[in-house]
Amino acid sequence: MRKRFRKVIDMWLPVVGVFVGIVLGMLLPVQVPVAYSSYMSIAVLAALDSVFGGIRANLDKQFEADVFISGFFGNAILAAGLTYIGNRLDVPIYLCAIFVFGYRLFNNFALIRRHFLNSLRGKPEQPDLEEDSKGE
Fold this sequence. Notes:
Number of domains: 1
Radius of gyration: 17 Å
Shape: globular
Structural class: mainly alpha
Low-confidence stretches: none
Number of helices: 4
Order of helices and strands: HHHH
Strand content: under 5%
């Protein structure tokens, strides 16, 4: 029973966190200056990439909390660093991070969708031959 409860928490905690963040973002009157808009777009993409990667890893039974947390903050710091360096050099390096995070986000979403469709159809799960993210 305890293991089953833990499994439910591990899967739904990131989803609940995203919804709480969206609600707080809509209710709190916080305005981001235009100068920081590229940083915020990268931060949101990095966070969504980590959340979808965590959900996917949990569905693949490969979720590791430490990998998720380190990937969450590591991706955000790396993306913000790329954006900062690009702004200093007057080169839009952040577009590279947007492309990579966007690709990974849609890839993870497609795999999550495929997992749920297979479970609705009653098909056995097939091993994932795509890249191994383990919650990043």
